[in-house]
Design a protein that fits this description.
By secondary structure, the protein is mainly beta. The protein is 9% helix and 34% strand. It holds the Pfam family DUF6510.
Length: 93
């Protein structure tokens, strides 16, 4: 039996890259997000991703605030970004 307390529950935000590409139409792991609570600014790929639930949760790597969360159903995606002050996505020329 595995001791679950020694297994990290989170991965980095790159673990959700495929799902984010489906949501946003492009890879946003390099997009820069700013946490609404602590002001930490980091690439989406550097967030803490929790992917073991019915949806995906991305948390601030500094203060653990929920930055983004989404769940996908057969015909709908529910997306919230409660902890993001801003999300800077570069536009490719």
């Amino acid at each position: 039996m595995t001791d679950r307390s020694t297994i990290p529950r989170h991965l980095d935000g790159n673990a959700a890259a495929g799902e984010m590409t489906q949501l946003f139409g492009s890879d946003i792991t390099n997009a820069m997000g700013t946490c609404r609570l602590c002001g930490h600014r980091a690439a989406v790929g550097q967030t803490r991703a929790y992917v073991d639930g019915p949806g995906v949760v991305l948390r601030c790597p500094d203060c653990e605030t929920v930055l983004m969360r989404w769940a996908t159903g057969p015909t709908t995606v529910w997306l919230e970004m409660p902890g993001l002050r801003s999300l800077e996505i570069a536009i490719e020329p």
